[in-house]
Amino acid sequence: MDINTTPNNFEVSNFRNISNNPGYNSQPSFADNENLLFAGTQNGQTEIMQFAINLKEKKRINMPTNGGEYSPQKFPKSNKIAAVRLDTTGVQGLYAYDYDNLENGKNKLLLPNVEVAYFAFHDNARIIASELGGNQLNLIIANLETNLVENYISNSGRSIHNVPNSNSVSYTLINEDKNHDIYLLDIDGDKESYFVCQLPVGIQDHCWLSETKLVLGSGSKLYEYNLFGNQEWKEVADLSSFNISEITRIAVSPNGKRLALVAETKQ
């Protein structure tokens, strides 16, 4: 959907269902302002899918592998895509794919021996990721060029995002009440973390509209949190008229003018 946000308004337009596909269709991320990546089911397997927004065209952009690809994201400053691959053997890892020539099937394992579950780029070399660790996820900071991995904190969540126009990354931790708290990590500075707010009960996902505003979905509604506002989640849009419910993952385009979300369609 297209979005237009002002201090007192949140307008939604051009809402459309871009997957219309049975199976798993989730984990959206914008490669740029005109192309959306997501993990989508094709022929019974999860692949890297791309939707060209202006052309209204959807296609698979990777050669099928022995496993399924998840959480596709473009490298910030190169024509490569990273995705989590879950092989049929149960081994899970982060791989790089050549965005310029994806059909050649070439890919490269990043961070050997690290079972990345969810991640976000901070820059071309560094990612912040939740790594599989027994019955929980643990947050790591990893350098893809040197393979240096720093264990940062345990019991993290799946929602990790670069904060626009800043040196910070947001991540979530599971608190004592089993709810998710959002923290900011200054990755270029002292690597200290700062508490931002708690996500609403039962919600795991968030993203950033700007350097000071967060957005999330709950049920069929969108909520906004302003770091310099009333310090509470405020309803800004009701999408029930579009026949959806149970919003989960959410992503905003680099220019802040488009929003993608994952939801169930009402029967």
UniProtKB/TrEMBL annotation:
Matching InterPro entries: 6-blade_b-propeller_TolB-like (IPR011042)
Gene3D superfamilies on file: TolB, C-terminal domain
Highest taxon, organism lineage: Bacteria
Protein name per UniProt: Uncharacterized protein
